[in-house]
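Need a sequence for this fold. Nothing fancy.
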């Protein structure tokens, strides 16, 4: 009934707190989704649901605006540093690398290639001891230090700087990383069998 609808609208609006702002469209959504004959409790639940949705949407918009501002700020800095240049072709603007930008890109590519993998690996426990020895050249000191960190994180103990031992299985991921870093040829991994003899596993 017309009077019932008016009552619901007035009751819903009157129930809003001073901090709550509900637009005309939101109020309509509440009434339609609840049904004109809905109880006040159902109206309140639907109102809270719409308020939560509105809050989430506003938060998403704020985050998107913040990311857009960061993007434009970063682009501005790259243009200011002479890495990018803005050009126009057929009324369309686009970016191009400057000579400085190309040099920076080459340097970043080299840095990416030289970046050390993580040193945290998951290893299964073993009943027998595993021994890892290596003789990595001094020119590859960073890779040598990385390998020591990885072995330490696996739980192996250092007997000497280039000899480590522990009751763990060396994970295949670590072996693959050593291969990609081109140091696997300098590393030897042994397992001590039940008879006490060494068995090379790489």
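Here you go.
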């Amino acid at each position: 009934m017309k009077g019932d609808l008016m009552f619901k609208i007035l009751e819903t609006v009157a129930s809003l707190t001073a901090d709550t702002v509900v637009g005309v469209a939101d109020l309509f959504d509440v009434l339609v989704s609840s049904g004109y004959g809905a109880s006040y409790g159902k109206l309140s639940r639907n109102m809270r649901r719409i308020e939560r949705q509105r809050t989430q949407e506003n938060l998403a918009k704020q985050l998107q605006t913040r990311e857009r501002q960061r993007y434009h700020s970063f682009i501005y800095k790259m243009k200011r540093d002479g890495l990018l240049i803005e050009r126009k072709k057929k009324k369309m603007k686009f970016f191009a690398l400057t000579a400085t930008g190309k040099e920076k890109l080459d340097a970043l590519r080299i840095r990416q290639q030289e970046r050390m993998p993580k040193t945290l690996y998951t290893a299964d426990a073993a009943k027998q001891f595993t021994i890892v020895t290596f003789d990595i050249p001094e020119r590859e000191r960073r890779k040598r230090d990385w390998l020591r960190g990885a072995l330490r994180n696996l739980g192996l103990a250092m007997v000497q700087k280039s000899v480590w031992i522990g009751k763990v299985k060396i994970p295949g991921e670590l072996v693959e990383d050593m291969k990609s870093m081109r140091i696997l040829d300098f590393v030897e991994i042994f397992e001590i069998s039940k008879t006490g003899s060494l068995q090379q596993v790489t």
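For context: Residues 2-58 form one domain.
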